[in-house]
Each structure stands twice: as C-alpha cells, then as structure tokens.
Amino acid sequence: MSNMEPKLTGNEKLVLWGLLEYPGLNDIELSKKLGIRRRTVNTVKTRLKNNGVFSTLIIPDFNFLGCEILTVLYATFNPLINYEDRKEGVKKIMECEEIIHAYSTESEAFVVSISKNFTEFMKKASEILRFYEENNFIEKVTQVYFPLEISEVRFFGFSGLLKTIFKLNVEREKRDEKLSNKIRLTKRNKKVLYALVKFPDARLSEIAGITGIASHTVGRIKRKLLENGIINIFNVPNLDVLDCEMLALIHVKYKLNKINDYENQPADVFKIRNDAESISLSLFENYIDYKDYYNRKLEHLRENNLITEKPIVHLFPVKKLNIVKNFSFAPLVKKLIGVDAGF
After folding, report:
1. What distance in Å separates the CA atoms of residue 105 and residue 82, rounded to the nearest whole number?
2. Across the chain, what does the average pLDDT equal?
3. Residue 4: what pLDDT?
4. How many CA atoms lie within 13 A of 231 on its CB side?
5. Which residues 6+ apart lie within 8 Å of 336 measured at CB?
6. Residue 215 pLDDT more than 70?
7. What whole-number distance in Å separates Cα of residue 52 and Cα of residue 236?
8. Which residues contact 210 (CB under 8 A, 6 or more apart)?
9. CA distances (Å), 199 to each of 150, 186, 194, 319, 343, in order?
10. What pLDDT, on the 0 to 100 scale, is given for residue 6?
11. N or C: which end of the chain has fewer CB within 10 A?
C-alpha cells in the first residue's frame, strides 16, 4: 500500500459515501440524494477521482457468462522465503485469466478466482500450486469452492464502513438484489461489454472510438446490460482514505440444514456464502474494533447453534498488503465471451 493518507473535507466525505452507495447515479440524481448542489457534486467528484481517492469498476454477472464456480484460496508462506524469491510465482498469477484478485503479505496470501467449471479451475490452479510447492514457498494452503448458482456474492460493500468511519448522518436504502435476465448477446453487445469492463472510466464517446460502434448504440447497449443485471457498477475507495489498520479474512463452516442469516456488517467489504460455509473480508480501524466485531459474530453463531468449530481467521496489516492482482476482470470476460477485439 502507498503512504498517501489524504485528509478529506466534510463535502468530500459525503460525496465519496454517495459515490459508493449510489454508483449508478449521475450528478443531478446524486445531488438530490445528498442534498447538495450539482456543481458541488461534480467538482468534488472530479477532485476525488483525480487524486486517486476512488476508482470505478464494472463487473459482469459471471454466472450469466457461463461460469459455475468461484474459488477462494488462502495460504501461509514458508517464512524462510521472501517476496523477491516468489516473483516467478507472482508472474504466473498475473498471467492466469481466471484469477481476478490476489494480495499477500510476507507471510500470507489471499486469492479469488472464477472459472467455467471445476475441471477448468483445476487445470490452472494445479500448475500454479505445483510451482509454489516444488519451490517450498507454501507451508499451508486452503481452497474453498463456491458454486455460483447457489452462492451469494457481495462485492465492495464499502458505504456502510464509510458511514461509520466518517461519522456521517446519512440513511442507507435497502435495495433488493437485481437478478440477471437471460438475454442474447450479439457480437456488438459482447464488444461493448468487454470494453466497458476493461475501461470502466471511459465515456460513451470513448467506448465508441475504441469499439468502432456509434455512441448512441453504445449507450443503448450499456443501458440494456445494466437494466438486465448483466453488469454492475462499483466505486471502490483507496484503502488509505479509510485509515484502517487491519483486514480480517474470516472463514465460517456452518452446520448442515442451518439458516446462516447473520446480516452483513458495516466492516464487511467482501463476502461470499452458501448453506455450508462463508468467507468474508472485513476492515477495521484497529485491533480493538476487530475483537469487538469477532466476539459479536462468534456469540451469534454459538447462540444460534450454527457452528461446530471456531471460525478460521487470518489478519492482514493493511499497510503491509501487497496487491498482486487488483480485481482484473477484463481478461476473463474476453476469454468467456470469445470477443474478437484488438484492444
């Protein structure tokens, strides 16, 4: 992570929260939600973007695109091997389209991959894991498989955390999850979809220039993809802005036939779960906040007789995180939809 710790004004905190809570709104719509002038929203948003305070991602529904499985891998490294020695392994991770996100510290790593099926995953994973094991890089590795059809995935739930950290007097709206409608993707649809995922900050006119498709057609296709839940827009804050010290990975294994309805907490920024288990990533300002969160979670799990063993926890110091691959979706999208694009 960088050493940048920008101090935000009141309006900057409010607009940043609004961008995370309502990523699909334009400036006029967002100004009404926040109760501040449109010009202020536009000025602040531009400044935040230019200063690297947040970034925009467009994520497709991978289940719709034909993927069946999301895999989470977490591992403990051999303490005698340093990061420099593992660089060849990092290169293999970067080249694997199915791996969408990976980070590590000197001692631990966390990887998320999405694949068409289990066989496809094993072809890629076995090669990379074999390399790490043959070079004695890894002491212990755990892989957890989530069938997308029966799993709930929650990406980038940062707005609740920002509300808490910034002490904002705002109300979050409860919104139903949008399910994807089955639509046919034409060649032009695929080309625009891939371009949107690869260049999430690009204007419609820029996407038109990249794809060679008219701007009004690009706009119509983008609206269709959004309305049918094929893509979703997310704004993600730079972690330095949050000034959090700790990222916790928590892996919970549930008893069979138990409803694990524990609600998402403000600290949870990524979560995937099904009836058998869940993995979450949660951010905390300090260790005391983490312990309070963990104790409440454990109490809920025990009181409701949901678990037979304690959750597995890995703690990552935010300042020591090394982002190996930062939510890279475009290579996998291009591979899945077979788009013929030279960009």
Report:
1. 10
2. 90
3. 46
4. 28
5. 62, 65, 66, 67, 116
6. yes
7. 10
8. 195, 199, 202, 343
9. 30, 20, 8, 28, 10
10. 58
11. C
pLDDT in tens, 291-342: 999 999 999 999 989 998 999 999 999 999 988 898 999 999 999 999 988 8
Interhelix angle 215-227/187-198, nearest 10 degrees? 80
- What's at 132, amino acid-wise? Y
- pLDDT tier at 3 (50, 70, 90 boundaries)? very low
pLDDT, average across residues 126-134: 87
Low-confidence winner among 38-52, 59-73, 164-178 (lowest mean pLDDT): 164-178
Residues in the chain: 343
pLDDT score of 157: 85
Residue with tokens 């979809």: 193
- Sorted by sequence, the CB contacts under 8 Å of residue 179 that are 6+ apart come out as 229
Three-state secondary-structure class, residue 11:
helix
Cα separations (Å) of 105 from 87, 111, 159, 241? 13, 12, 26, 20
Q: Which two tokens stand for residue 9?
A: 């004004």
Cross-strand partners of 33: none
The pLDDT of residue 90: 84
- Give the whole-angstrom CA distance, residue 343 versus residue 341: 6
Q: What is the identity of the amino acid at 301?
A: L
Helices 204-211 and 215-227, axial angle in degrees (round to 10): 110
Encoded amino acid at 145, one letter: Y
What are the b/e assignments for 80-95, b being 16+ CB within 10 Å?
A: ebeeeebeebbeebee
Integer-rounded Cα radius of gyration of the chain: 21
pLDDT digits (tens, 9 = 90+) for 226-284: 999 999 999 999 988 888 999 999 999 998 776 666 667 889 999 999 989 999 999 99
pLDDT at 42: 96
The number of beta carbons lying within 10 Å of the beta carbon of residue 246 is 18
Residue 338, classed as helix, strand or coil, is coil
